[in-house]
Amino acid sequence: MLKIAIIGYGKMGHQVESVATERGHKIVLTIDNNNLNDLTTENLKMADVAIEFTSPETAYKNVKKCFEAGIPVVCGTTGWNNQLEELIKVAQKGENTFFYASNFSIGVNIFFKITRYASTLIERFGSYSPEITEIHHTQKIDAPSGTAISIANILADELSNYNGWTLKPETSDEKIPIEAIREGTVPGTHIVNFNSEIDSITLKHEAKSRRGFAFGAVMAAEFIHGRKGFFNMDDLLKLD
Ligand SMILES: NC(=O)C1=CN([C@@H]2O[C@H](COP(=O)(O)OP(=O)(O)OC[C@H]3O[C@@H](n4cnc5c(N)ncnc54)[C@H](O)[C@@H]3O)[C@@H](O)[C@H]2O)C=CC1
Ligand SMILES: O=C(O)C1=N[C@H](C(=O)O)C[C@H](O)C1
C-alpha cells in the first residue's frame, strides 16, 4: 500500500484517486486551486509518492517542490516540454525520482511502437507524407497535445525528410503537420495518416475514457517506489 499525494484534483486527479483506492493505496493529500497553500514540504513528506496532473503553467514548480521534499513524483501534465527537459536532467543525476509520460495509456504506448515501425517501412519508399490529427475535449488548454508531439518526434526520428512539427494551419515542407481539434468531451483521439498519390494508410488510437491514463499513472507510482532517477513508459512497459 502506497500513501499518495494527488497534486491537481481535477478530471485526472479524481480518476487517479478512484484507481489508486481500488488498488489498495491511500490518498493522504489532495491539492487543487482551492488549497494551494497546503502544498508544503511537511505535507508532502506524509506521502510515499506524488502524482501530478495540473497545468502547463504550474507543473514545473510542483515537480520541483516534490524534488525539494525528497518525494518521488509521477507527472502527466502536458504543454511544458522546454522546462520538462531541465527537470529530466536533474532527475537523471540520480538524487531524485521522476516519472514522466505525455500519455500513460498502455494502448497509446503500443500505438507509439506501431507508428515507429510503420515509419521505418514508409521511409524505404519516401512517397508518403505524414500528418497527425488529435481530437480532445474543449477544456484542454494546450495544443497540440503532448501525445501528438510525442508521435511527431517518433515520425521525425524515422523519416529523413522531416525534422519537427508544425501546428496547422501553419505549414512547412520539413515539418510534420499536426491538426488539433477541440470537440465536446472527447477524452483523447490520435490519428496518424500517411498519404501518397495512390493511397493512404491510417493509424488511430481512441481513448474511451480517462481510466487508462489514470491506471498507467498509478502503475508508474508503484514502479518508482524504491527507485531513483528518471523513468518513462518504456521502463515500465518494456515493449521493445
Ligand atoms: N499524461 C497523460 O496520460 C494525461 C495528461 N493529461 C494532462 O494532465 C493535465 C491535467 O488535465 P485535467 O485533469 O484534464 O485538467 P483539469 O483542469 O481537470 O485539472 C487540473 C487541476 O489542477 C489544479 N491546479 C491548478 N493549478 C494548480 C497548482 N498550482 N497546484 C496544484 N493544483 C493545481 C486545478 O485546480 C484542477 O483541479 C493537462 O496538462 C492534461 O493535458 C490529461 C490526461 C492524460
Ligand atoms: O488533456 C487531456 O485530456 C489529455 N492530455 C494528454 C495529451 O496532451 O496528450 C493525454 C491525453 O490525450 C489526454
TrEMBL record:
PANTHER family: 4-HYDROXY-TETRAHYDRODIPICOLINATE REDUCTASE 1, CHLOROPLASTIC-RELATED, DIHYDRODIPICOLINATE REDUCTASE. GO terms for biological process: diaminopimelate biosynthetic process; lysine biosynthetic process via diaminopimelate. It holds the Pfam family DapB_C. InterPro entries: DapB_C, DapB_N, DapB_N_CS, DHDPR_bac, NAD(P)-bd_dom_sf. Homotetramer. GO terms for molecular function: 4-hydroxy-tetrahydrodipicolinate reductase; NAD binding; NADP binding; oxidoreductase activity, acting on CH or CH2 groups, NAD or NADP as acceptor. NAD(+) binds at residues 76-78, 101-104. (S)-2,3,4,5-tetrahydrodipicolinate binds at residues 137, 146-147. It is found in: Cytoplasm. Residues 107-237 form the Dihydrodipicolinate reductase C-terminal domain. The lineage of its organism: Bacteria, Pseudomonadati, Bacteroidota, Bacteroidia, Bacteroidales. It catalyses: (S)-2,3,4,5-tetrahydrodipicolinate + NADP(+) + H2O = (2S,4S)-4-hydroxy-2,3,4,5-tetrahydrodipicolinate + NADPH + H(+); (S)-2,3,4,5-tetrahydrodipicolinate + NAD(+) + H2O = (2S,4S)-4-hydroxy-2,3,4,5-tetrahydrodipicolinate + NADH + H(+). Residues 3-104 form the Dihydrodipicolinate reductase N-terminal domain. Catalyzes the conversion of 4-hydroxy-tetrahydrodipicolinate (HTPA) to tetrahydrodipicolinate. The gene is dapB. The active site is at residues 136, 140. Belongs to the DapB family. This is 4-hydroxy-tetrahydrodipicolinate reductase. It is an enzyme of class 1 (oxidoreductase). Pathway: Amino-acid biosynthesis; L-lysine biosynthesis via DAP pathway; (S)-tetrahydrodipicolinate from L-aspartate: step 4/4.
